[in-house]
Amino acid sequence: MNTPDSPPAIKSTIRLTLAGLIALCVCLVATSTLLTHYLEQQRAPTSVPPLPVGKPTLEPPRPAGPIPPWGELVTLDIDLEQPEEYVSFEATTNLVTTWTFSGKSLDQTRTILTDCGMPAAQVEAALSPDNVQDRPEATIIKPGDELVLALALEVRTKLYVTLSQWSENPHMALPYHLPGADFAALFPNAQVPTAAIDMVKKLSYTQLGKRFFSDPEVVLHQLASPEDRLHLLKMLTYQNAVIARLRLRPDSDVEKILGYWGTVPGVRLKDLRPLMESIKNTPDGGTISLLYFLPAFARERLYTSPLPAQADDVKMDCHWTALNFFSEKPDPRFQDNAYASTYIKDNCYQIGKPSLCGDLVFLVNSKGEVIHSAVYIADDLVFTKNGVNFAQPWILMHIPNLREVFTFTEEPRVLYYRRKET
How far out from the chain centre does Cα 122 lie? Predict the structure, then answer.
């Protein structure tokens, strides 16, 4: 009921026909669909890329340029430590520092120490009766940890370079190679006490721009724990080595690759060809260990260390290793340097660069003396045993890394030779 002062009420009436009702339902459904799609788009992660069309490939990129005769090598550089059993043996023996002056009298040794810049008080301490053995063939000094730690850097460098000329001083002749300034790179697992790392740094010295260390005994004396001594030597005794495989792709030229490796004595094409073809015929190809392409001598020894030597055992050094590379039964005469030199002179000739597996690689000092022998494999890889020590394994190395190992007082030249019957 309306009063005279109130505004009139407005009444609204909606009438729908059947066609209008149908149209309204269609609009509601369409609106709901659009709203649902919008909300799903808002929730969807925008960072996920669309799926690729077609089958994704796992084939690694091809190298630039033509494939070399030996095929496509896949290499992995590793730091190979000595066996823990051998490191443990070293950690409990040879703990006395000795300086051996071969062929030098006591007076000559005194002169050498003085010429290296050692103060008179340190010279007298080194040559005290308790520390020195004056023998006809050499003067041997046991300086003691206190004197070793007290050496000035310049004195240590000159003295150790002098001592390196005599093999009786193994840690000077073949010192430990250290990283430049980042000692954390040498001890990445922090298993060696900080005090020991600082002592290694203090006792290290630089020669030809490289950092070396020759006093493991002194540092080992400061470590009470056998575990700490073991970790220290494991870190120090690593070697740069290479694990190598040959990649075969569906379009690899197996016959060309076999043309290189098939010339290696002891490698049988009848065994290699079906194995390589089977790998090549898989959808994406694959890799095969380089061990299959080496003669039995290398195949049986690679990445292993010999057992501890007895007094009458063969001296399995680098020269014996290199010259026996193709031997079915190793020739013990190659342990004699004079015999090995005569063999090379009579049976080998010098070449400009290596191009065949089995070519010989010699590191030569300024006197023309061969200080190391190795065997060329392929690319810049050599098969080598770095030293006569039984703890040194047979490994593959890059030639530049091998050259660096034997760079101390001078950088050696690299000469290449080939056997005449090759």
Answer: 39
More confident residue, 4 or 162: 162
pLDDT at 185 over 70: no
Report, as an integer, the average pLDDT of 76-80.
89
Residue 58 has pLDDT above 70, yes or no: no
Distance CA 229, CA 87 (A): 9
Q: For residue 274, what pLDDT is reported?
A: 94
- pLDDT over 80 at 209, yes or no: yes
Q: Is the pLDDT of residue 63 over 80?
A: no
The strand pairing partners of 75, in sequence order, are 244
At 330 the pLDDT is: 94
141 pLDDT more than 70: yes
Between 11 and 222, the more confident residue is 222
CB within 8 Å of 144: residues ≥ 6 apart: 97, 131
> 397 near 243, Cβ under 8 Å?
no
> Cβ(319)–Cβ(408) under 8 Å?
no
Span 357-372, pLDDT tens digits:
999 999 999 999 899 9
